[in-house]
Give the backbone structure.
Amino acid sequence: MHNFDFAKPSTIADAAKALAAEGAQALSGGQTLIPTMKQRLAAPAVLVSLTGIREMQGVCLGEGGLHVGAATPHAVVAREARAHYPALADLAGGIGDPSVRSRGTIGGSIANNDPAACYPAAVLASGATVVTDRRRIAADDYFQGLFTTALEAGEIVTTVIFPIPQKAAYVKFNQPASRFALTGVFVAKFASGVRVAVTGAGNDGVFRWAEAERALSADFSASALSGLSVDPAGMMSDLHGSAAYRANLVKVLTGRAVTAAG
Amino acid sequence: MSRIHVTATVNGDPVEFLADPRETLLDALRNHLDLTGTKEGCGTGDCGACSVTVDGTLVCSCLMLAAEANGKRVETIEGMARDGLHPLQRKFIEHAALQCGFCTPGILVAAKALLERNPDPSETEIRYWLAGNLCRCTGYDKIIRAVQDAAAEMRQDHRGAA
């Protein structure tokens, strides 16, 4: 690792101030950033830990749905979201392994926007609102491609607000070594319609599958997907799975998620 | 790059040290505190050899900065045996649930964290909980059996004590 100065503010305001420094970088659970720094792929001059900010911790019901503090570890979301939004709790409880879930946070996950991360699927399918220290960003505007988001330099995700659907489920096909989603699909049924978000498959990261949303809004059953297909042209291809394989997984997992949502 | 004064509790003992910002909790345990039972396998959070608990939650100490341990309660493999070996340690020996032993401290710490939450885990729950701990010698079966046997003994002892 290259050397850096370490800061651990206890308020969002102090963190924002610290992140204004040249070469400053926010650190949340560190499950991606620390290995990246060890490989010298990231070399921040100042590392600003967000783990000591109480106002960014915890899960509670509030205006607009379930408010999840951005520095809340996955294990805590798995526990505290259970009674309010079980599909979100299931997703959080299935990320990585217990050690990852102890440290990794929702804010870190969606700020990094790994194309195979689980949380972006929940945020996009729920039509969640990403609250930062500067503004509120709709999920549809937030995710902008591989490791790319609407966040500006130094902007801090503070809370994610999830509208709670009538029915929802997340189903992923694990990449068995990393336990990232080889492909994962989050289906959420609201009174206004169904939203389907796919992670681990698209060339540009998480995306909504519009055809499936239309079909499922008319008929919320796995059989409603039978006539649909996903174009492999937009899918990632790597040693774990070809584009055609992923395209098929999207359809299969969407059906399974609909069935699991009940 | 200024060093950071860290005070923490490790295995019940108060400790303090000056951490370089780059040092991980694993580095601090091994190099400042001479607690070399916790191993560095991959250094990237994949293998679990560096598993410890921080305020009761299981973490990879290689992915947590030492500075983040300030004010925390850390438990490592060195704190596991109290009056004699912990039941998990004894059962690992009885079942030969190790060969080279490099992954064993991490697996024992992880298994202890599981049994504290869930005294009667199913085989599936044990396997999922230990998903972050790699062993390249045993093929896992003996590890799972040792954890099940230790859990059974601990439940028995608990009932006996109640």
The radius of gyration of chain B is 16 Å. The mean pLDDT of chain B is 96. Chain B touches chain A through 32 residues (CB under 8 Å).
